[in-house]
Specification:
Blueprint: H1 3-16, H2 25-32, H3 36-47, H4 51-69, H5 74-80, H6 86-97, H7 101-105, H8 107-110, H9 117-126, H10 129-148, E1 162-165, E2 169-170, H11 178-193, E3 199-200, H12 203-206, H13 216-223, E4 227-235, E5 239-248, E6 254-264, H14 271-282, H15 299-314, H16 317-333, H17 338-353, H18 358-382, H19 387-400, H20 404-417, H21 422-434, H22 438-451, H23 456-468, H24 472-485, H25 490-502, H26 506-520, H27 523-531, H28 534-545, H29 556-565, H30 569-581, H31 587-590, H32 603-612
């Protein structure tokens, strides 16, 4: 179907459902018999508008026809064309045409049918000379204020100091290069993140709005930002074309800037730098110099790297092995490409998590530890600006080696290079937990949440820190906030149950854990929890989880914690010993949970704490 034919079909479907205010993108896609993502891409490619924006424009154009007939009131027309609120209709109409529906319907405008909306807008302004006087006075006032209170380069406008980069839509006919679209989005986020006076939302939260049909204002409100960058990408035989626009959605939607970029594949690596520089200048952020020079590499090596990163993000054993293969291809082409070494270390770390046999897992970690250190050191040697390499190195030193002070040194170095790296703040929160500085730990967790506000893992981290500080009401509120957004997120149900337990509310604790096992499909546990006492339920859980071979026990520190629910100290120490033997990564943080106070006087527990480097004196 031709583009014009497709648009006619879309318009006919919208007009057929004109009065239905609930007829949106999803309903339109169903009528057309296509997916929402296909509808998004097709409309974006043809009109350079979002699907929501195009639907709104069709409704407004029909409204103009009804206004011209002068048979209905403005409010009646608003409902006739599918706006649930006359005030919202007025706003959208004014945004599109420059004047209100009532003004259009008045005699002075309606009797000028040959004029375009822009012509009408100009004449309506000409009929109001006081507007020009007001504008002139406003300019004088602004100049006076700037003269008295000049903005310095180090104090950018706060209302434009936060941004989310939405995933680039791939509008290509043949979508075989999704890894480049994802990689370029990530690269733009990374480049903007290096600016110290700009808050940039992490990819995890931004990716939730891929193919979204929500209004820009809703997206910005949920992410807590003032600016959005959205765009599309089209691949040709030997080049790539990227279209981006910068939007200020609130209080009224403004399209601040837009541009198109076309590069050959050989120059693809420079695209993110070009776009990021343009955005920085557009929102009046002063960059002391240009962004740090991007690591140079050949186009083939860069594409292998982007494929590897795309596979790494899928986070399963098969994809991680394939990612390592792609990284080896990239490094065979360019052995001095630093990001490939950093990502290689991440793949080694990721693969270890999927090994179920505890003995094999420990041996693999010890053998890959050398390879991980070698890769990270090489990345830092080749490019000292790679924030993620420093942060990963810090995490390895802390969680693998219990070298917490070195962990802090490298993580802080990484954050200095990229103040928007949410993983860095999570790592610092972990560090302060180990050192017993819970106020700082909570502060770092909240900073991570600010940068990644819709990542349930990050949101639960904040709740966990409240639990460690024994601020259970705050923890319960935070966990419930997570569950409002992600009703099936098991870690939130688990944490909520623990917070209730520590508040001595066993009934609500058991209800939360019942929901957890309902999600996991553990029907027997659900039945026990719903019909038996708290203690019987816990003992049944322990019987089920401790009946297998300890070689395959994946959560010994959690089993240790649950033993303490029934005050079985020896059972708890048995599983803590198992977690310590196999160096389970969550062990140091689980030992600091409040119900482990039952073991604080146990010499075995004290010795283990010293070996791990936990500062127990701050956890009386």
């Amino acid at each position: 179907m031709s583009d014009s034919g497709f648009l006619n079909k879309v318009r006919d479907a919208v007009i057929a459902n004109l009065e239905n205010e609930h007829f949106g993108v999803s309903e339109l896609a169903d009528v057309l018999g296509i997916s929402r993502s296909h509808l998004f891409r097709r409309l974006k490619k043809i009109t350079s508008q979002s699907a929501n924006q195009y639907l709104r424009d069709v409704r407004l154009e029909e409204a103009v026809k009804l206004l011209a007939k002068d048979e209905l009131t403005v409010s009646q027309i608003a409902y006739k064309v599918g706006f649930g609120s006359p005030s919202y209709f007025n706003k959208c109409f004014h945004d599109k045409y420059g004047y209100s529906p009532g003004e259009y319907q008045s005699h002075s405008i309606k009797n000028q049918p040959d004029e375009s909306p822009n012509d009408k807008r100009e004449k309506s302004l000409k009929r109001k000379p006081y507007f020009l006087w007001a504008a002139a006075i406003a300019v004088i006032l602004v100049i006076t204020l700037i003269w008295q209170f000049p903005l310095t380069p180090s104090e950018p406008e706060t209302h434009k100091s936060s941004i989310a980069v939405l995933p680039l839509l791939d509008l290509s006919e043949n979508r075989k290069k999704e890894h480049i679209a994802v990689g370029l989005t990530d690269a733009i986020i990374l480049e903007l993140s290096r600016l110290k006076n700009l808050r940039v939302i992490s990819r995890g939260s931004a990716m939730l709005f891929r193919d979204t049909d929500r209004l820009y204002s809703e997206v910005a409100d949920q992410l807590g930002v003032k600016l959005l960058l959205e765009g599309s990408i089209v691949f040709n035989e030997d080049s790539v074309k990227v279209t981006v626009q910068l939007i200020e959605p609130l209080p009224e939607e403004k399209h601040l800037w837009a541009n198109k970029y076309e590069q050959s594949y050989s120059n693809l690596i420079h695209l993110s730098n070009d776009i990021s520089n343009a955005i920085a200048h557009e929102i009046n952020l002063v960059v002391n110099s240009e962004f740090p020079a991007l690591p140079q590499t050949k186009s083939d090596a860069y594409e292998w790297y982007l494929k590897a990163r795309h596979l790494w993000l899928q986070n399963n054993p098969k994809s991680l092995i394939l990612a390592l293969d792609c990284l080896n291809e990239a490094l065979a082409i360019d052995s001095a490409y630093a990001p490939a070494y950093s990502l290689k270390a991440e793949c080694f770390i990721g693969l270890n998590r999927f090994i179920r046999n505890n003995e094999e897992k420990l041996k693999n970690r010890e053998s890959s530890r050398v390879a991980i250190a070698k890769a990270l050191n090489k990345a830092i040697e080749l490019d000292g600006s790679l924030s993620e390499a420093y942060i990963t190195k810090g995490n390895v030193l802390g969680k693998f080696d219990y070298n917490w002070d070195e962990m802090r040194f490298f993580v802080e170095k990484g954050i200095d290079l990229n103040p928007n790296n949410s993983n860095g703040y999570i790592s610092l929160s972990d560090y302060y937990v180990i050192k017993g500085d819970l106020p700082h730990s909570i502060k770092m967790a909240l900073k991570a949440e600010q940068l990644d506000p819709l990542n349930p893992k990050t949101l639960c981290l904040v709740a966990d820190r409240y639990v460690l500080a024994e601020e259970y009401d705050k923890a319960i509120k935070q966990y419930n906030n997570v569950l409002d957004l992600f009703p099936n997120y098991g870690f939130a149900w688990d944490g909520l149950g623990y917070a209730y337990y520590m508040k001595k509310d066993k009934n609500n604790a058991l209800k939360a854990w019942t929901e957890l096992h309902r999600i996991f499909g553990n029907d027997d546990l659900v039945r026990i929890y719903e019909n038996e006492s708290f203690e019987k339920g816990i003992r049944y859980w322990l019987k089920q989880t401790t009946s297998g071979d300890k070689l395959y026990c994946s959560n010994p520190s959690i089993i240790a914690m649950v033993h303490l629910f029934v005050e079985d100290k020896n059972g708890a120490m048995e599983y803590l010993d198992l977690a310590y033997k196999y160096k389970h990564l969550d062990l140091p943080f689980m030992m600091l949970r409040p119900n482990f106070k039952l073991l604080h006087e146990d010499v075995r527990f004290q010795e283990m704490s010293k070996k791990i480097g936990i500062n127990m004196q701050y956890y009386p």
